[in-house]
Amino acid sequence: MLKKVLIANRGEIACRIIRTLDRMGIASVAVFHHEDRNAPHVQAAGERVQLHSDVPTAAYLDSAQLLAACASTGADAVHPGYGFLSENSEFSAAVSQAGLVFIGPAAETIHLMGDKIRARTFAADHGVPVAPSAVQTGSIEEFERNAAGIGFPLLIKAAAGGGGKGMKIVHSAADLKDSVRVAASEAQRYFSDGRVYAEKLVIEPRHIEVQVLGDGNGKVVHLLERECSIQRRYQKVVEECPAPNMPDELRARILQAATRLACAAKYRNAGTIEFVLGADGEFYFLEMNTRLQVEHPVTEMVLGLDIVEQQVRIASGQALELEQDKLIPVGHAIEVRICAERPEKDFQPATGRVGLLRVPQGQGLRFDGGIREGQIVTSAFDSMLAKLVAHGDTRDQAADRLQAALRDLAILGVPTNIDFLGRVMSNSTFRSGKLHTGFIAQEAAQLLAPQVCVREDVAAVVAALIGDTDFRTSVLDTPEPYASIGSWNN
Fold this sequence. Notes:
- By secondary structure, this protein is an alpha+beta fold.
- The protein has 4 domains: 4-103, Rossmann fold, CATH 3.40.50.20; 132-200, 2-Layer Sandwich (Dna Ligase, domain 1), CATH 3.30.1490.20; 206-447, D-amino Acid Aminotransferase, Chain A, domain 1 (2-Layer Sandwich); 452-490, no CATH class.
- It has an 8-stranded antiparallel β-sheet with strand order 14-13-10-11-12-15-22-20, with helices on both faces. Strands 3-2-1-4-5 form a 5-stranded parallel β-sheet, with helices on both faces. A 4-stranded antiparallel β-sheet has the order 6-9-7-8, covered by helices on one side.
- α13 runs antiparallel to α14.
């Protein structure tokens, strides 16, 4: 078993990994930039090392500093979390070359699946459905002709992309040239790789993903599927397990396709295979994320597993002991991402100081957070602050619990999407399970409409502050002006 793990990440995922390491009796090392010096993940770890950079995010991307931190603390492994260097094959290789354990797949697997064109070819070669497509191999003009031959609408995507960057929807031949140019430019800017490809655009698609675990020797188990269709700007907002309104036969085909692909790749550790599902029941390979996913808690709550523990055990060289027929789901779980943003302003990221944080408690609830009272939320990092998850015997019970928990969750001092998420939970279309990636745009009139006037909003903040013991004590213990003056009178 590993002895000491450095977490090459920050925020809620670093806190979440540290909790599992503590339970397993494994020492933890946190890294931090100066702006994160008082962050919860820094306080939670057994040891901490400061990273230096003028740009905060660059510090967490500096592999040399991270490896130096491993050497100075005696860490024998690195857990990359998600984001940052988690899917960087060069970093994975560097960790291994330094004699350390990378808690994730082999560098070769990351390299294979990190390029969407390579991954799509690999999937097709192993019988996994891929959407009709055209790949840029020669001139732009030839690519545009081949893309047009698929038929419109089309989706132009970056070969090395993600998060909606380098992605353009094309509705007609007249828009194709400009869309390809813009997508290629974005791909070059964000990923230093201007290659793009085109594929058939599935109308009102569902985003379905399958969590897998592999031991690297050919044994793979799936941990069911997740529904991730509620998105804004191509980024997930609500995730759940299992997917609602999914026929058993279709679910079985999707799970089998994902398992077949992971087996073919001799996949090691945790990964997620993502599919786009059309209304006609046809599904296509989208990509493989060779890391832990933000939404892994819903799978954990339904199966009663700790996926991070499984990652650590596999990375330690232990055999994968889970058996597919023993992985039986219980109930339903839904997760929402709590973000510092303004939904009414196209989900514009927000900043501020967390003045009050009150986390709901109750049966079936889980809060994965990386913030504390007094913490300054800046624009230097991703806007996600925490995740709130609810489990229930049924989907409706999980949604009811999550809706009530969102009412009880208080984060004051920085604008958040909490109220917006509450409206999602009460939305009739959401409750029916009729989901697709255009859900937010379709339901915008209900989801984005302000629900309280300014006066009520202010009253709610005042009531929350008055109800807070620390705030009330600090106010009531302050002497009145005349009392502090003493006996003097005007």
